[in-house]
Design brief:
This protein is an alpha/beta fold. The chain contains five helices and five strands. The mean pLDDT is about 90.
Length: about 130
């Protein structure tokens, strides 16, 4: 990655904390607990990726993806879940999220996913309208 990416990390439970800790040192992480806070930051700031738990404090990951789509946001959403398999991964991708992160969480895996999400975002921004 050319620059230090800026990440919004939604959530506050132990899984959220574990993923957030893995992002530390890889990105500038802004942690929020509510969907509205995350959406507000993404609208005001120059963030590269949103990491969203399967079940945020209110609503669902799907609510987050739909809200960002309505606002025509191009910020990739990485959904993470304490359990996830092929069915959940397919569901996340079909709904428009960037990817699903499932345990065992590994720093190398998180780094690669972050790099891919950032590169994808900037590649999409360069496409003609």
């Amino acid at each position: 990655m050319e620059a230090y990416p800026k990440v919004v990390m939604l959530g506050g439970d132990p899984d959220d904390f574990q993923v957030g800790e893995m992002l530390t040192g890889l990105a500038a992480v802004t942690r929020v607990e509510r969907i509205a806070e995350a959406i507000s930051l993404l609208e005001r700031g120059d963030y590269d990726v949103l990491f969203c738990p399967w079940q945020p404090a209110e609503g669902t990951w799907r609510d987050v993806v739909e809200e960002l789509r309505k606002r025509q946001s191009e910020v990739p959403v990485v959904v993470f879940s304490h359990c996830g398999g092929e069915h959940e991964w397919t569901e996340v991708l079909k709904a428009g999220a960037f990817d699903l992160l499932a345990p065992p969480y590994d720093r190398h895996q998180v780094r690669e996913l972050l790099e891919h999400a950032v590169e994808s975002r900037y590649a999409m921004a360069r496409l003609p309208a």
